[in-house]
Amino acid sequence: MRVLRVAIVLVGLLCFPSTTLAQQKQPTAIGEGGAAASVDLLATRAAIDALRHGANAVDAAVAAAGVLGVIEPFSCGIGGGGFMVIRTRDGEITTIDSREESPAAMQPDSFFESGSPLTFDEARWSGLSAGVPGTVRGWQLALRRYGTWSLGRALRAGIDIAREGFVVDETFAGQTEPVVDWFDDVRSTASLYLDPDGTPRDPGFVLRNPDLANTYARIARRGARAFYHGRLAREMVAAATDPPVAADANHAWRPGLMRTRDIRSYEAIERPPTRVRYRGLDVYGMGPPSSGGSTVGEALNILEGFDLADVDRTRALHLFLEASRFSFADRNAFLADPEFFDVPLAALLSDEFAAERRALIDPEHAATSPVAPGDPRRETTHLVVSDRQGTVVSYTFTIESIGGNGIVVPGRGFLLNNELTDFNFDSLEHPNRADGDKRPRSSMSPTIVLDRGRPFLAVGSPGGSMIITTVLQVLLERLDLGATLPEAIARPRASQRNTATTIAEPAFRASPEAAELVNEYGHLFGTPADIGAVTGVEFLPGRRVLAAAEPVRRGGGSAMVERPEP
Fold this sequence. Notes:
By secondary structure, this protein is of the alpha+beta class.
């Protein structure tokens, strides 16, 4: 096996940048040896430092993730969960599912009151939305099976930064502003993330989190058991079932259903990946309960039947949006926890099913959503790491919405997630309905692309359900439309998820292609919004590696290599 370059790429599923040295961030780096691209300079440096001290790809991924849990706390951390895709040094592909799990007591109507479902905000800002966190179990499983470092060693960088602090920037303050009205309800959250006057921490403020440093140190000494058993587990349960709400809180905070037995019984699961062939490449992703691998894969299978090399850019974007539309119809109907629903994964990813769905696409005109699902039964921090022994890791983890459910576990320094709002909690019949001991459907799409068995490309993004379309568009731009990886990441994006209108970034809506998509193909664009925050790594000829992050979105990312080209 040829020697592979060491590389790491980090992004947030919702982890956006806040760094002490934002002015030093560079979105692209090319060179040899180790490489890293993340939403934050400190996380990138942690990855490079780990690799320089003998870490393999899995070790470096966990080390960087631990740092992101400190400096991107509204987006990821040990209070949440995620998915990891790994190419081992022997060339095998596997995945680790550390998705959050519902408490055993949860029922399909747990988010209902007086016969009606709660609104999203009522469900989110509560103990009800908190699933049992899986991140720590996932880290430990990955390290034990595929790493070389202990969990304690991997957490050293995170411990140091939590104790020493990091400088709040404009992006961090901007993330805080929309959630202040809920953060100030919870005493432990307000004391950590708000100034005494109840406003966001000002840019330039050095934010230290000694409670999280101590929590990390406890896990470092005792392993994942320290998180899932004993005092720490009891404190998580107390925070979820009796939220530490101030007397003058202006919202109702409903108690959750989590119990210590739910935390104690949680396990991360190793699962097989999804795989499709696209333009002669092998594209691997995450299977259920994530819908990322299956939906990206189905859309690629649909696009495989179109000769995009012979069409103009507008036609290619039209077909991309239509493939997304039909794939999302199937995703919404058939993706759920495979322990509760027989997900027809093989059928969803079959060439025959793709041909059926492709036949419904009008090359000349947009369909009207919602389109019906097919019948396959005839079926947000991200990191990518590779080392010189050939291991590659693509990892996405999150606490769901910005700020999770808003509850910092008192004395522990981390926010709980609101992942259980990823259930179809307004339905009593949907395959993705709320049930006990169940993992909600996710859109996280960590992706590894191989060329004749060798790593070629790895990408991922934050962004909720728009993660899927973001990863899909970056692959389309890079593999079909002539873009380099940095260009594919930077280009304006659009997201069609089987809705009446397509969400598009302002720069996309202002493009000539968007005008043609409206006037010639009948597409409708809705409210503009930023979409995703991609990082990726590509392996180049001559033992060179390219790491790339966003140049502008979410404040831009940070890319570095061990031995940069002059």
